[in-house]
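Long-time lurker. I teach an intro course on protein structure, and each term I like to show students one example going from raw sequence to a predicted 3D structure in token notation. This year I'd like something fresh instead of my usual example. Would anyone be willing to generate the tokens for the chain below so I can use it in lecture? Attribution to the forum is fine with me.
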Amino acid sequence: MARTRAQTAEALAPLCSSDVYPTLTSGDLLRIVDGCQRASTHAVSTAYAVGDKVVPATPNGRLYRAVRAGTSSATAPTWTTEPSLQYTGQRVPDGDDLLWEDDGSAPQETYDLRRAVSRAWLEKAGKAAADIAVSDMNKTVQLQQVHAHCMAMAERYRPMEIW
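-- Reply from a regular --
Happy to contribute to a lecture. Here you go:
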């Protein structure tokens, strides 16, 4: 079963050491998770922009991408459920203007955790960017190393994308 938003944020926290300086709050984690949502569940009477991705409220195993913006109908469109009739590129009208195109198989997970981890480390790097070396008589800390470490971790988790 796919993770919820809260479960994804909970899984993200230890992977990005959110409780270690520079810290990320639970609000930060939720915002990052929201930015890594692969698709939302289709909703009736809702405005969608070109590029928005949805899965039907009654899952049929497919992902749909808006190719023409508009507002969805007051009732769900007729999503194809017969596997032999499902194919990438198939178009499904919804409301007066909105047009969906089958974009392939629906993702198993709603949120891209790997992308979220990379973004969380980048956010931590941004918080540490202005840090410099400090000392207190006996100890010197090179805080620039914190930034370098965060950048290295962001790169480690950066998802591979095929264009």
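Some talking points for your students: The chain is about 30% helix and 20% strand. The helical segments are 5-15, 26-34, 113-128, 144-157.
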